[in-house]
Amino acid sequence: MSAVDIETVKQTDAQKKAQRSRSIAIALALVAFVIMVYVVSIVKLGPNILDRTF
């Protein structure tokens, strides 16, 4: 079986729309998680984040 013989799956417009919606939801969840980790890190460091004395 060669690469030419492999059949590809054609998505319907509804499937493409659903996949795009899922991709956007995952991207938004990832962005929210990154922001949450950043904010929690800043809060845990508190005022010491500006203290650069060694």
- State the shape: elongated
β content, as a range?
Answer: under 5%
- Terminal residue distance: 66 Å
Please compute the radius of gyration using only Cα atoms. 23 Å
Number of helical regions: 1
Taken in chain order, the helices and strands follow as: H
Give a verbal description of the structure.
- It is a single chain.
- By secondary structure, this protein is mostly helical.
- The protein has a domain at 14-46.
- Helix content is 61%, strand content 0%.
- It contains 1 helix and no strands.
- The protein has one helix spanning 13-45.
- The model has no long low-confidence stretch (mean pLDDT 87).
In short:
The chain has 54 residues and is mostly helical. The protein has one helix spanning 13-45.
Descriptive tags:
61% helix; 54 residues; mainly alpha; 1 helix
Element layout with pairings:
Layout: H1 13-45
